[in-house]
Each structure stands twice: as C-alpha cells, then as structure tokens.
Amino acid sequence: NVKLDNKLKNRQFKKESTDKKHRKEQKKLRAAIKDAVLKTPLPLERYKKRPGVCKDEEEEEFVESLPMDMMEEDDLEQIKAMAQKASFLTRDLSSSGPVHAKKRKGEQQGPESYEKMPRKMQLTEEKEEMFCFTVLGIDVFCVKPMSELSIFVQIKKLKELRAMLMETDPYVAVTVRKLVMVSLMEVFKDIVPSYRIRPLTETEKASKVKKETQQLREFEEGLVSQYKFYLENLEQTVKDWKQKKRKRSEAVSLQSYRGLAEVAIRCICELLVALPHFNFHNNIIVTVVPLMNDPVKRVSDMCCEAVKKLLKQDKQGHAALGTVKVISGLVKSRNYDVRPELLKVLLCLRIKEVEVKKDTDDTAPKKKFMNYKDKKKNLSRMQRKWKKAEEKLEKELLEAEASESKDKKLKLHTETLNIVFLIYFRILKKAQKSILLPSVLEGLAKFAHLINLEFFDDLLNVLQHLIQSGDLTYRESLHCIQTAFNILSGQGDVLNIDPLNFYSHLYKTLLKLNAGASNDDISIVLRCLDVMLTKRRKQVTLQRALAFVKRLSTLSLHTLPNATVGILASNRTLMHTFPKCDILLDNEAQGSGVFLPELDEPEYCNPQNTALWELHTLKRHYHPVVRRFATHLCAGAPSEGSGALIVQLVSTFPLPSSHSCLINKFKHH
C-alpha cells in the first residue's frame, strides 16, 4: 500500500509539473500572437532576378549577404532546423499541445509514417477473447477472461469500473453511466460461477488453507461484494427516477433520468434471467416484479418478458416459487388493482404434477440386482468385486436422484401452485368484477386438473354463479366452462355431478362466436368440445351429441375458412365417437317431433329429426380444403383416405399455432 501511495503521488507530481510547464508555454504563445497581431506587417522587399543567374546561386548570394556576425551559432542552428520543418509554418497555433514536447524513444519523425503504422494491443501471456455488443447504437468492446488466474487479476478492476457509475461530468455523465452499466452486466454474466457463494463461517476463516484456496476465497468475496454494490446502484437509479429525485451533483437532468433508468432496468432483467442460481436473485425478483405493474408500457413489457423467460427455463422450481410469492404479496397489497399482464405471466409456469398425484416412480418396477449365488455362478472373483462396487455406486445415484431431487421438485411445485390458487381464489371471492378475472379464469382452465379435491364443490358453484350472472364476456364464459370440465375430467371424475348447465350455456352461446378476422376464441371452443363431449363420452347422451353436431354445422357456414375447418374436424371426431350420429346424413330418416333450432336446450330440441344440409352448401365453398372436407363428411367421414386430406390441409392451408389441437386430432385418426 505504501508503494502504491508513493507511486500515485509521483504520478500526480509529474502531471502537475507537466501541466504547469504547458500553461507557461501557452501563455508565452498567446503573448507572441497578440504582439504579432498588433504590429503592422512591413512589405517584403522584392528583388529582381539578374539575367544569367540561376536560383541556387541567387540563394547562396542571399545567405552570404546576411549579417551572420550578429547571430549566435545556437540561434543559427535553430533557424536552420525550423526552416527544414514544414510543420513549423503550417502548425495550428490554437492547438492545445505543448510546443517543445519531448519525444519518446523509438518514435519516428514524420506524421505520415506513424499514422500509417497499425495499432497493436499490448500482448499478455494469457489469451484474451474480444466480444462486442451494441448499446444505444454504439459498439462497445470488452475483454472476456479465459482463465481463472486472469479473473483473479481483473476482479480488482471491477471497483474502478463501478466507480464510473458516479460520473459527474454533465456533458458525458448519461452516456458513460449507460455504457458502464451494460459493460458491468456483461462482465458479471461471464465471470460469475455456476454455483451460489455462501459466506464463510468463523471456523473456516480461522483455518489455514492452501494458497489457491485462499485466492479463490478472496475472489469470491470480492465478486459478491462488487455484484451487491452494482445491484444497489441499479436499484437506486430506478428509485431516483420513480421518485423524481435529483442527485446533489446535478450531473444528470430529470429529463435524462428516464433513459438511464430504462437501461438499469434492462440490465436487472438480463441478470434475472441469466443468473437465477447466483446470490441476491431474490432481491432482483423483488425489484423486477413491481415494475411489471409500471404505468410505462415499455418498462412493464420488458419486465414481464424477463419473468416469462425465467419461469419457462426454471426446471427445479426455486425461482418460480420466489416469483409467485412476490406477485401474491403485490396483488394483495395493491388491493387487486394491478395490470392483467401480472397474472398472465403465471401461465408460463412449468408445473405438470404435484404431491396430490401419486408419483410414477413409486409404481415403477425397481431395478433388480444380482444376488450372491448368481454372482458366484456367473462371475469370476475380480468381476464380482467390480460388480459389487458398481451396484453400490448405482444405489447411491438412484437414492440421490430419485428420492432427493424428485421429492424436492414436487414439494416446490406444490407450494408454488398453492400460492397461485390462493391468488385466483382471492380474486374470485373479493374482486369478481375486476379486470383480472379473465386472467384468473384462463389460469384456472390451465391448472384446474391439479386442484385439490376439497375445493371442487365451492369452485364449481362459483363458476356457475359467474356464468348465470351475465357479467362475463364471451371469452370469459368459455374459460369458465373449460375450467369446470377440466376439474371434472381429472380428479373430479369420482364426483357424481351432472354439469347440465354448462352444456346448455355453451350450446346457447355457440352462435355468438365472432365470425370475423379475430376468431381467436375458436381454439378455446374446440378444446371445450373435446373435454365436454369426447373425453366424457360415457356421460353424454346421444341427443346431446346430435344437437351439438347440428349446431356446429350451422356455425361453420358463418366463420372464416380456418375456423370452418376446425369445426368440421370436431364434427368428424364426434361422428367417430358417437357412430349413431350418421343418422344426420340420412335425409329420409323419420322420428317423433320436429327439430327446434331456436331452443337452447340440447336435450329437448329433437336433433334426430333433422339432417346436415349445411354440408351440401359447404361443398360449394370458395376454399378448396373446406370443399374437400365437406365432401369427406358427406361420405360418412371414413377413416380410409384421410391421409391425403391431412397433407393438403397442412401444405395448402396453413393454420395458426392455436389450432395445433386440430392437427393432433387428424394424426390420431
């Protein structure tokens, strides 16, 4: 430390001496320029050339005619030296460089020569890799360390780089701070290890370790410290922008703080996704989640996308659990007055099973190991020894992987899903008219098969009450129906419940489907029909199935080609699931009563007394795939020859990703 202080003092003293000398030279130069401006220049004497005298002889005679005895030898040499330099006559007097600056050894004389020489970086013993990223239209180059030793050396520079976040020059403060934020973010993403660094205990600090271990400890301690200070600076930048505070240095204006805060938020979001395993990740979640509800749409979308990426890539469940806890607290503290995007993020959770379901590993046959007799009979002594060690290792691996990681993952997923359902049930109970209701119903529709059995009755009653209230939009009512039947098709199949009201509501509202360009609801309708009719075929009467086939055929006349193909595919599935539906293809069949298309009850509209006349109209449809599909259904929807229809459907009639269930139905049949 003393050597470093002395070195710093010497460097400052040299700098002060150079600056002082430079100021004196500038002062003399300005005085000379001022005197030259005040004086009136005298006209130069013009000499006529004598005939027969060349130019060189004339210059020699002119030099000989000068009064050399009045000049000293040093002055004469200086004049000759200045005369040989063209830069003396063309020098910019307003330049800030010193007039008589000393030149370093090995530096060439001409400006053209060293300007043409290529710049070379200082070579080090360790190889370094350059990478570039763009910030605000500026290419920023950073050095990526390639070995642990270089990391240990460069970690000391993080503090100096972080100090540049407090740049006070008002002309460059905003740009410098932005670039330093992004540079530090990239550096941390590269040098952070793939494990969480825990603080050392007092016993570990007091114990003696190897030199390499001590270096690693110092590196980890410095890394965590600098990472913590960096995150605190980013968080403080965002707080200053939100509270419209201004630093005492007055380096950054209030108008520029928004751009600075957006860069800080982007860095926080990048670290949220890139370093979910490292220290202070929960602190980052606490910072990002409230910004998902920010009134600035750009900031809100940025944070929502980052959280979605985090939930999609989270396989173990630690990050998902921390995120859901913070979202639950935020929704409750804001009294459910938050943006719907905050709850739509929960749809990205990767939860497929919880502890309420029986683990498949418990029922799977366990691996059998060889007993002693088999080993002695089939293996030699050395082979038995290796086999014993191998089986011991396999048992340890099976115990470590199956029992620990599987149970821990299920426990985390169960706790996460319980908090998600707590959010949904609170909104259903206290804020049914909130703008969050569509997101809640969509989330329930996705995770309904994982709800505990004890909540089924209450939840079905709430959904039925919402549908009967008439306050829901068409899409919200579809999500209610989908949620109810997802419950009944999962663990709820043991319940003796007849959801007749849900069937009647969907049958009544089918003709209200949007037939315009925004027909996104058709995918939800197809999923509802699949879970209501196909998967519950044993609980569905023939009258109900006939009524839905007829109403879907009527609906197919009004929708766009992609929705029409989806509806016809659903009809084909129903005709295979309920073979007696082919009665609708016979126009000579007779039954009791008259078909009542305006009746909203599928059980009592007498659908057996009508026929699918709509298919003959669709056979003259303008789209070729619709025409071929209608012809296929008119022929009784045979299974033979449907492969060519699938090929034409996929190749000549591209469907959106929301209709992937339609393609799966085709492949299944």
UniProtKB/TrEMBL annotation:
Q: Which GO terms describe its molecular function?
A: chromatin binding
GO biological process terms held by the UniProt record: DNA replication initiation
Q: Provide the Gene Ontology terms for cellular component.
A: nucleolus
**For bias kind Basic and acidic residues, which ranges apply?**
1-19
**Keyword Ribosomal protein assigned:** no
Residue runs in coiled coils: 372-408
Question: By its UniProt entry, which Pfam families does this protein fall under?
Answer: CBF (PF03914), NOC3p (PF07540)
The UniProt entry lists the main location of this chain as nucleus
Query: Which InterPro entries does this one have?
Result: ARM-like, ARM-type_fold, CCAAT-binding_factor, Noc3_N, Nucleolar_cplx-assoc_3
Keywords attached to this Swiss-Prot or TrEMBL record, sorted alphabetically, are:
Coiled coil, Nucleus
Q: Where is this region: Disordered?
A: 1-28, 94-119
Q: Where in the cell is it found?
A: Nucleus, Nucleolus
Give residue ranges for domain Nucleolar complex-associated protein 3 N-terminal. Answer: 154-230
Highest taxon, organism lineage: Eukaryota
The CCAAT-binding factor domain sits at 477-630
Q: Does the keyword Coiled coil apply?
A: yes
Assigned protein family: Belongs to the CBF/MAK21 family.
Which PANTHER family did the record assign?
A: NUCLEOLAR COMPLEX PROTEIN 3, NUCLEOLAR COMPLEX PROTEIN 3 HOMOLOG
Q: What is this protein called?
A: Nucleolar complex protein 3 homolog
Q: Which organism is it from?
A: Oncorhynchus kisutch (Coho salmon)
Provide the gene name from the record: NOC3L
